[in-house]
Each structure stands twice: as C-alpha cells, then as structure tokens.
Amino acid sequence: MTVTANRPSPPVVPPSPPETIRKRRSPLWARLSAAAGAVLVIASGGGLVGGKMLISQTTETIEVKNLTGDAKKTVEEGGGATIDGAIDLLLMGVDKRASWSDDTLHADTIIILHIPATHDQAFLISVPRDTEVETPAFAPSRWEGGTVKATEAFYWGAQNGAGAAGGAQLLAKTLKNMTGISFDGAAIINFNGFKGVIDELGGVDMCVDQQVTSKHLGLIDGKPVYLTDARKEGLSPKPVVHKVGCRKMEGWEALDYARQRYGLKNGDYDRQRHQQQLLKAMAKKASDSGVMTNPIKISSLIKSAGKAFTLDIGDIELPDFALGLKNVAANDMVLLRTNSGTFSSNGNGREQFQEISLQMFQAAKKDQLGQFVLDHPEVVANEK
After folding, report:
1. Which residue from 123, 144, 164, 169 has the least number of CB within 10 angstroms?
2. What stretches of the chain show up as alpha helix (H) in DSSP?
3. 318-333: pLDDT as tens digits
4. CA dihedral over 337, 338, 341, 343, signed as positive or negative
5. C-alpha span between 127 and 338 (Å, rounded)
6. By three-state DSSP, how is residue 76 classified?
7. Does the global pTM surpass 0.85?
8. Rounded to whole angstroms, how far apart are CA atoms 93 and 190?
9. What is the CATH number of domain 28-202+289-379?
10. Nearest by Cα to 344 from 181, 128, 168
11. d(Cα 197, Cα 56) in Å, to the nearest integer?
C-alpha cells in the first residue's frame, strides 16, 4: 500500500517503544566528531589527548541514541569498531523549540558527510529537502511506507512514540535505499541549540552573496525574535536583512542566514550551499582560534553542544575516531551540490536526482568521490 504525506497511515503493527537514551561518559571530544565534529574534530587533530579527563566530565550533557537503525554500515561494507576505511555520516538539522514535540519535526537540513579512507579530506553533499523519496515501512512509528519528500521522511518516522531517533532511522534507511550509502554514524542538530556552539566559538566569518530578508526573525530593541512570536504579541519587529559582504556573525545571525531559501536565486540550493559554508566556517574558526587545543575551552564548547546535538557514532572507539581524522583540516572540506545546483522537477513540484547526482552517490559509496570530483568539477559548489 502506498500513502502520501497528506494523510497518516492507519496502524498496522504495534509501535516499538522508543529506545532508551544512553548517557556515555566517554571522551566527548570524540563524540562531538559525529556532527559539528566531523566539523570540530577535523579542526582539532590530535591536540586534545591531554584534556580527555576534563572533557569527559561534560559528557552527560550529550544525548546518545541509535540514529542509523537498519542503515548502519555493516562490517562487510567497511563498518564496525575500527576507524580504518571510509566514513559516512548523516547530518540532519531540525528546528525544535521548547514547546514542540518530536512528532512535529521535519528534517529541514540533510547532509551526507563522506570522509575517504585516506582521511585527508571531507566531502559534504546536501540532499534537497523537497527530493521525492520512497520510504519503506517502519514498524516503530506504524508507517506503512510511501512516496514523500525527504524532509517528511523524518516526520513519519517520528510518529506514534518513535521520536526523533525513529525519524532519523527512517530517513537513514530511505537514503540508503536511494543512494546505496550506509552510515557509520549520524547526528540530529537542533538549530536553536546550535546557536550556543557558534557563540562559544566567538562567532564565525561568513560571506553573504545575495541580499535576503529573513523569513524567520525580526529585531525588537536590537534583539532577534521569532516573527511568529512577535505577531502573536502584536509587535512589529524591524526586518533582519542579510546584506552582501563578508563579516563576523553571531550565532543567531549565522544560523538565520544559513536557513533562508525564499528570495534567493536558486532557492533551497543556495540555502544548502550556505549551510555547508557555515559548517566549514565553524571548523576554520575552531582551528584558527586555538579552541580545539585548549581543554578548558573545549569543555565549555561541549556543554553548549549538549543543547544542540543527538549523536550516534556506531561501534567506533571514540579516541580512535577523533585521532583518525587528525589529517583533515577545515580547508580540506569540499562542498558538493546535486543537480548542478538548480531545481530539477519530476513534474509534480518535487525534486528528482539527475543521473550525475546518482553517479556521485555511487562514487561516495565506492569511496571514489575524489576522482569523481576531478572528472566532474561542476558538482563542486561555489563557496561565495
């Protein structure tokens, strides 16, 4: 039976209870590498060894769940408890506010992070949120399967008590079926919590390439407020306008800019590129400012990260994961785009991958992405 995202599927099996959250007391600097970590640890190299004891004291702030489910990379695929080989991580960004439950969320940002076996580069591939996907049946949320947008796969996986972990698992399985890529780990990034991570870094340097007015935030007495909240209170905030040029941005400003898609020339594709730029800017700031070699600063940064991430790093030993990426620097992060960075409609207002994009995913699966990029330079996103 095929269903659409416009009506929920009737229950067909009892829902599985959401997996109990596990709190690990392992060195969190390694766990952070699953998300901002593929970002932050890329900047850190091996300089954190002396601070493991201090950093481990903050690990209880991080939520750890199984986010990959059936899409977890098997030993036969190169997975398991070793850092050897290529690494594939799924990063999912959600907009969750304090009063919102997990079963209301969509994955507004979807990024596949591929690190080749040489561990000297990192490739970021954004999956358009409006890509049409075929989701499999998913018992924990009572979802029978159906044709939906990629952003909605997370939503349907989170229903009926399956929670954010269910949403991540269904999205991961959907992407595995579509691209062939299995995942060593994954991270759910809460945009609202992510702001604190950027502020802990002291802001980031971003270059705005197109002027755009925020559809999410306005200013009241110089402070950002959600437009929806302001309207409820009868307030008329000043528009937040992101003007062309390069400058340092606070957390709220950088996140807001990276979330805009309406009013941009290429819509969601420009937003994907800006989000990739933000992750790279964070890695560069962490590296250049010395944050990643200062255990005290790391500890404070991780406490902020605890409000932003739900992580899954699979079976890899945490120190091995971080130290295994010591040769990947911020400047080695390559930003890639699907469909040449333009909307490719399937005729009903949804995206479909062009052949070159499908070939790019296969190259990632086979750990041949570096050569593919050399042969197809058009898939590299312009960073400005």
Report:
1. 144
2. 28-31, 36-44, 52-56, 150-157, 163-179, 191-200, 227-232, 251-259, 268-288, 295-305, 318-324, 355-365, 369-375
3. 555 655 666 676 667 8
4. negative
5. 7
6. coil
7. no
8. 6
9. 3.30.420.590
10. 128
11. 18
